[in-house]
Design brief:
heterodimer, A: about 325 residues, alpha/beta, Rossmann fold, eight-stranded mixed β-sheet, four-stranded antiparallel β-sheet, globular, B: about 325 residues, 12 helices, 12 strands, about 25% strand
Amino acid sequence: MSENIFEAKNLQKWFPVRRSITDLLKRRQSYVKAVDGVTFSIRRGEIFGLVGESGCGKTTTGKMLMKLLEPTGGQMLLDGQDVTHITAERLKTYRREVQMVFQDPYASMNPRFRIRDVLEEPLLIHKVGEDHQERLKMVARALTEVRLQPPEEYMERFPHMLSGGQRQRAATARSLILNPKFIVADEPVSMIDLSTRAEILHMMKQVQRELQLTYLYITHDLSTARYFTDTIAVMYLGRIVEMGDPDDVIDHPRHPYTMALIAAVCEPVSGKVNRIKDVPIKGEVPSAQNIPRGCRFHPRCLYAKEECWTQIEPELEIVEGRHWVACRRYKEI
Amino acid sequence: MVAESARENKRVLEVKNLKLHYLTSQGAVKAVDDISFCLNRGETLGIVGESGCGKTTTAVALMMMPSPPGKIVGGQILIEGKDIVPMTETQIRKQIRWEKISMVFQGAMNCLTPVYTIGKQMMETLREHREMAKEEAIARIEKYLAYVGLSRDVLKRYPHELSGGMKQRIVIAMALFLEPKIILCDEPTTALDVVVQAQIINLLKDLKQQLDLSFIFITHDLATEAEVSDRLMVMYGGKIAEIGTNEQIYGKQGPMHPYTQRLLKATPLLHEKVEELAFIPGRPPDLLNPPKGCKFHDRCNVVMDRCKEEEPDLREVEPDHFVSCWRCRES
């Protein structure tokens, strides 16, 4: 077994844009480069956080890992095995190994199914369990793992009879039921009330430790990412700009974009009212259809110099230990 | 009482014993149940709470537009000393809504019609309320666009051509251009990215100064409130749990109500590494059949016998600091 459960090498997803008549005549095709060359590896048993603003490509990356989208380029390895393009047959076993928890627990469950049916469905699809009784036992075990106790009581309920937090627990139980190695969680708590958000993250972390799972945690929220993850990767416009241990990245950010993100976060401490906050960034995110030349962050960067737009795009390089940054001038700023 | 009357002069809005109930076939859901508070001139009052605590319902009541089966069943809303609750819909529309008090809705970016240009939408709204020549209206629209930091180029654009932050700025401009003095903002930054969120918050602070506005800022996020609100009102189960100044809630001493205390502990700090985040087990009360006594008692960690029997009222425990909790009154 390799140390890395998952590796992405220069992974790309380009969506073709519908062409106008002039484009057709000129034989021109433009693309929205949602993910434009990301490289990372996820160690076995860790929680890997993918952080970024909307449209940065974090969800697209997650969907490629789930095999819901086919990559345009690059390579994906699961347990050292190439899974970039796989057959329908392999896909079925892949889906047992990799599972997903979605953002909206209100939309991700069939409202006409009882929780027992919601959880039994993956077992039926993958022909797991001898008979109905055995499957029900597995359902009960999964519900116990996510602390929906007593499981018998929750099994008979419909999704609308559960609170947001309980639904997200049930959704997590559904993702656990096939004993996956790897779980993709796309903003699993962003729709859950603040008072229960921590409870869900806590439960997910406990389950991860007990069952030795690996998570990819996709979020826009740096504060929960710091608490929840073992590695953070910050994405901007389809690329990873900074990656490392959460403490290093948040307390000592090296990329100007990460610095701006951190400066923008609100914190519940006194003495901040009536003060205008200084966020060191210019303008707005450009379209992923027209990615700036050179470093893709340069038009918004306060530190950009000529080299940033004339030379080729900087790759991730090691700052120290397990801390990477993709910035030509990080030593000077 | 002398201090009380001096304070009253500054009040732009006063709410007394307001009740908004949803009258369903199964009984009345007491979404807002007997709450009283005020808004001073030039301040931002934050309202926080979990979903279903009544914060949006409060805003809807202040705009006098409860959606059926919701109904204001009691209380007063005084704007410049005048109670607006007994007014007819026509009076409200002519004199109050958008004129004296306006609202920026949750997910406001989606309030814009996709089929009209921004210019047309703004013009239509303005001329519906004011008889104005076209040139005059354009001048006013441009003035407010400048306030929110947009150029006149956006007038020719359609909503889909603009970013979320720009759309939010347009909706804010539209809430402002009839010159109301009270602005309700319901989760105005929740759907936006952090960088844009910070920019919108900066904009609101700037407008407050320039135009002498008073804000009510509603969100579920205590971290955002810390940077926006001069005073904070915490709601739980349709009631006010605590009202305090920014310093009282976020300062060294910290909040007094156990609910606020634990909500604050559940808010992760970016620059502090914690092993375990705190949370509040249980779920908010069912407002159709609210529990007896204090509504928070079944989730409270310092509950006493009295809490289960009698409901505490909101009392001033120190200047400007109001708490409804039996435990706080003891010590």
